[in-house]
Design brief:
- This protein has 301 residues and is of the alpha/beta class.
- It has helices spanning 4-16, 19-25, 30-44, 60-87, 102-105, 107-117, 130-138, 203-215, 229-237, 284-300, and strands spanning 49-51, 56-58, 91-98, 120-127, 144-149, 157-161, 165-172, 183-184, 193-196, 221-225, 243-246, 257-262, 270-278.
- A hairpin with a 4-residue loop joins strand 1 and strand 2.
- Helix 1 (4-16) crosses helix 3, helix 1 packs across helix 4 (60-87) and helix 6 (107-117) packs across helix 10.
Length: 301
């Protein structure tokens, strides 16, 4: 087994072709360096250096060994650096899943800052419902999930809450409550048909919707369900009902739909976005991404 230390010393000797200068570069004295080169030649089994009183030169075997030793040392340095970067979360990959509405509000700034700070990391992104995201976390198919909280069955998961997200009311543009209005009272929606997420796909979102309505004194009459926000808005545009949707949906424009603020200050009309990850997942990139999310959220407060 050849020691990397001997290879490094040999490369310096081969570059200097002078034991005194090589020893100075290596911060050692000449006799131990000479002994080290003899030991290296014994380990290789051939003469690598042609020595005389007046010169040192590489033998043909030494010239080949010099090129290969340099390559090995370069590979070793690269391996060390890549391991260091990976351990710090600066290199590798991250499998991230998210609820689609978060892609309109929270994630764009995070992605931009993360890619600038960690150009060596590759992101693998999927948009899924909360239920499927949590399944993928537990099955090891994703590293990190941006989901709608609360997460009631959080066994084996680590949960970090982000800033609350605001609901707005989506209704057909020709609805009586929408005409020339910028806001609406939840209490005035008690007799309206609602479009919502299936509870099995997004329990946290459904629970938040119910809480908003119950604060206003009624339980919503849900007549249609859809698993994607764009589909919900399409149903609203078709006049099938109204919906509570994330304020981030304002970034999308859909004909025949208006988004109105909720005007009652006594009604909490927010829901939680949380980042979830499996406790057993030791991917260092997770912590780098979480740090970036925190920085972005702090800068917007």
């Amino acid at each position: 087994m050849l020691e990397l230390r001997l290879m490094r010393q040999f490369v310096v000797v081969a570059e200097e072709l002078n034991f005194r200068r090589a020893a100075e570069r290596l911060h050692m004295t000449q006799p131990p360096l000479s002994v080290a080169m003899r030991n290296l030649e014994d380990a290789v089994g051939v003469s690598l250096l042609d020595r005389s009183k007046h010169h040192v030169r590489l033998t043909p075997a030494g010239a080949v060994f010099y090129q290969e030793a340099k390559r090995i040392l370069q590979y070793t340095a690269q391996a060390r650096e890549r391991a260091r970067l990976t351990g710090m979360g600066h290199e590798g990959s991250l499998r991230l899943s998210f609820v689609p509405s978060a892609a309109l509000d929270v994630l764009p700034a995070v992605f931009k800052q993360f890619q600038q700070a960690y150009p060596g990391v590759r992101l693998h992104l999927t948009a899924e419902t909360t239920t499927r995201q949590l399944q993928d976390l537990r099955n090891g198919r994703t590293d990190l999930a941006l989901v709608v909280g609360p997460v009631h069955d959080a066994g084996g998961l680590l949960i970090e809450a982000l800033k609350p997200q605001t609901f707005v009311v989506a209704m057909p543009a020709d609805h009586a409550l929408a005409c020339n209005a910028r806001s609406v009272r939840v209490r005035d929606l008690a007799n309206e048909p609602f479009v919502s997420f299936p509870n099995v796909e997004g329990a946290g979102f459904t629970a938040a919707l119910l809480m908003v309505c119950r604060q206003a004194g009624f339980t919503p009459h849900i007549v249609q369900e859809a698993s994607q926000m764009q589909a919900i808005l399409t149903l609203v545009a078709g006049g099938l009902g109204i919906a509570l949707v994330p304020a981030a949906m304002r970034r999308l424009h859909m004909d025949d739909v208006v988004l109105l603020d909720i005007e009652e200050p006594d009604i909490v009309h927010t829901y939680d976005l949380v980042l979830a990850r499996a406790e057993a997942n030791d991917n260092p990139v997770i912590h780098a991404f979480l740090a970036t999310v925190r920085e972005c959220l702090e800068s917007t407060e």
